[in-house]
Amino acid sequence: MRDKAGIEPAHAERQIDVNLASASERAILSVSAAQPVYRIEKIVTDAEGRPLALSQLVTPSHLVTYTIKS
Fold first, then answer.
1. Tens-binned pLDDT, residue by residue, of the chain (70 aa)
2. Whole-model pTM above 0.85?
3. Which of 5, 26, 39, 59 lies 20 to 30 Å from 66, alpha-carbon distance?
């Protein structure tokens, strides 16, 4: 964004959840209605809080390892 459009991202907010997949997600991921998926939605904003980008990751939860170091 900086190089192509001169837009400066300032913040990113992520929402993370594990839930059941929607019908369209089940079809794409080839998972059953009972199999949970891991979902991350990220919104990137500029310094004034205007949204610049939205991304979503949905993957079967058995394929995810979440590690936190402190």
1. 677 777 888 999 999 999 999 999 999 999 999 999 999 999 999 989 999 999 999 999 999 998 989 8
2. no
3. 26
